[in-house]
Structures are given as structure tokens and as C-alpha cells.
Amino acid sequence: MKLVECWRWRFRDPASGRVCRTMYAISEEEARRFPQAERVPGTLILHEVDEVDFADTLPSVGLPLTK
Questions:
Q1: What is the pLDDT of residues 21-52, one digit of tens each?
Q2: Residue 25 domain-assigned (yes or no)
């Protein structure tokens, strides 16, 4: 088991210029896709992850296999 820090994040939407927040707590790795993402204080959640059990839930699941 491994603990992963998950936070709610705020970021500025490049299209509208508005400050937005993520609906759910996500990891820092997932938050990298948002421009200038900042953690929202007080929203830390620690998720237990067993890498072997959850290996099939990666973003590549459901994509055609490439050889």
C-alpha cells in the first residue's frame, strides 16, 4: 500500500480568465494539466493505493493496443 496526496486545486481558465476549482481531490500529477494550478488549503485527502491492484485503471485503459 502506498499513500497518495490528493488535493482540490484552483487554476485560471485560459479561455475565460476565470478562477476555477476542481470538483474532486486529485493528485499533483493529474493537476499538471491545469495551467498554474494551486492547491486549495485544507483540502488534503490521503488515498491508499495498491499499484498492482489498480494498474488497469490508468488513462491508457480502453485505448487500442499499439505494437
A1: 999 999 998 999 998 899 999 999 998 877 66
A2: yes
